Amino acid sequence: MKFKIRPLVGDISLLNFKDWRLLEALWSLGKLDDFFEREIGGVSKEEKKTFFQVVEQIRGKLETQLANIHFKKRTQTPQVIEMEIFKDSPRKKN
Prior knowledge:
A two-stranded antiparallel ribbon has the order 1-2. The chain has helices at residues 20-39, 45-67; strands spanning 3-9, 82-87. By secondary structure, the chain is an alpha+beta fold. It has one domain (3-87). The radius of gyration is 16 Å and the shape is globular. The longest helix is centred in the middle third of the chain and has 23 residues, at 45-67.
């Protein structure tokens, strides 16, 4: 799927990238994005509201799952990590 993760806030080294729940949530978000891009063109105007609601509901559940993943290092203060996850697509040449 060629996704990249860019840390925006916090120390990303605190995440345990061997945690299958983290990997599953990230993979699922990527698959949801692929599904959205593939199917949005075939959704009628009448179906778009429902389509967006379903996608947002699934995305919300996956983001909650990500938020509940624990850091690999225990610290005294709660840690916040914000990441940008984006698809690495080849640039089109003009």
